[in-house]
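In response to reviewer comment 3 from the previous cycle, which asked for concrete evidence that the modeling workflow produces usable outputs, we include below a single protein chain processed end to end. The sequence was submitted unchanged, and the resulting structure tokens are shown without manual editing.
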Amino acid sequence: MQVRFELLDSSARILALFCLFMLVSGTPPIARAQTSADEYQVKAAFLFHFAQLVAWPGGALSAQDPTLNLCIFADEPGRQELQAAIEGKPIGNRVLHVRPLSRSQDLQGCNVLFLSLDEERRQTAILKTLRGLPILTVGETANFLSDGGIIRFHLDQDKIRFDISLDSADSSHLTISSRLLLLASKVIRGNGTDGGR
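The workflow returned the following structure tokens.
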């Protein structure tokens, strides 16, 4: 699988250590979220690495604006922890920016969208409006992937894991690195599961 992105040397070193740790230990760097703040720091680290290991199609990212926008609803309980953890971090030649959304705000301009459990009631409608758009969607509900989401967080013996829907990624014209696919608990294509950890 071809990966169309470029990492800065420091980001590449961080990513290599992250992947090596996960492959050797079989667990995320912080396996157990002791508090809600800890949990969001773990998820922030995952979101940062997801953004590093996904390639957007040509024209999806602005040539004039160097930011990569991670959108999260402003009333999300863990937004401040997430924002503090990853705001301004470099992703290749871009900078990650956490963009809070109001309920009525258009999702245009989002490159990554995180939907927490709190968004379950409106999740189906949100994902339906994003279908086919080059936006990496990450969520937490049990039916997130079946609703059309791309990456789903879940707990496995109190450890944060993630599953990936390749069909949803393909329909959004996003290319997911083979390295990220190897770290997923499940990689789902069609009605079946291709693999994962």
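The two ends are 18 Å apart (CA to CA). We consider this sufficient to address the reviewer's concern, and the full set will be provided in the supplementary archive.
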